[in-house]
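Per reviewer request, we include the raw input and output of the structure prediction for the construct analysed in the revised manuscript.
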Amino acid sequence: MPTRTRSPRPRPVPKSYLTLNAAFPLRAIRSDEELAAALDVVGELMRRELDEGETDYLDVLVDIVHKYESAAHPIPDATEADVLRLLMAERALSQPALAKGAGIAQSTISAVLTGTRTLTKEHVVKLAAYFKVSPAVFLPKL
């Protein structure tokens, strides 16, 4: 006769988790007002040392916040020009300095930054190598 394996018992729920859940119940966020209240709780919890129950509660609350924000306030993908502009600003690079360092014509860099031209695969490879980042940072998410 085959032996039955029992499902592991769930961990006991710490009192601190239940206390937090009683004060601010974990449930789907349906409005920006509820989001603001949830973010207040997140901020309060992040300012202190947490026990296991409080950490579990915070993890679940952050997941709920993320789900709402992703649906209600999606962040659009950055354009390749935005990414290039950011990388240049972080390193205080001028267009001529980037052109020389990456081996790409300054006119090309200027055109990409103004949005009149897109990067070729060769440009992406050169820029990724120059900035020491993954080529994926210049590509839109699918």
